[in-house]
Amino acid sequence: MTFAANVVSVLIASPSDTAAERDAVEQAIHQWNADRAERQGVVLMPLRWEVNAVPVMSDTPQGAINKQLLDRADIVIGVFFARLGQATKRYPSGTVEEIIEANEVGKPVHVYFSSADVPINQIDIGQLTHLKDVKADLRIRALYGEFASIDELKMKVRSALEHDLAELNLSTPAAPAREDEKPALRATYESRRKQYQDSKGRMKYRTVGTRVVVINSGNAVAREVRLSLEPVDGGALPARMDGWERPRDIAPNGGTSSYPLILMMGVAREYEATLTWTSEFGDEETTSHSLSFA
């Protein structure tokens, strides 16, 4: 079935060590298309330098990417892991050049840095130092995002695209939402064990990455999701990181949103988790269930 649509090009700007992250951003774009393209009358088209750039002898590599991809992009998603990339004539790296050039002409730009541990065989002190410097510079001039996992990156990119499309206010009429399309939210507790060496050289483990993850297993976006926890065993609430109070959109079909927290002495282990969101029809909906931090 054909349908009229606006095409919005999304450039994925990133150094060579982020192939998995570029794949994740492209997957988020394709998933948005599958979920919402027909209804919104918009198709998102991912642009990647290793796929869409044509080799030419008449320009530098970065100049060719700028002319062929950056100039035609409507939105730019920048992603960094452990490398900044190769410097160009004017900027610390090609990815930085794409981000700054796009921002200077008024295009929506979203930049994300990985907070995951870097494998020892990928550590390059020089690259990490350059990356740290660029991150510090961006902290002064803009708001950037961080992600601890591929799934978290997908979720954040999806939210950014939703924001941009709302700002663009494209005129193609959207198809109405169907009554059988509904979010289905549930909160789960996640953590992981990290090995470390104590002062006597003994290998031990500590719990890190503690967070509540909200999963949307339904077939519609859950908008303005809010999460609250109520202890049921007499303990205290955990320390919650920045962003807990901010309503957020969660994509359908397995989309997730992460709520980092810190567990301390006296913190409760059993909670009543309450999730509130706005449906596609503008109605406020709520669900509650038990949640264990065991």
TrEMBL record:
Name of the featured protein: DUF4062 domain-containing protein
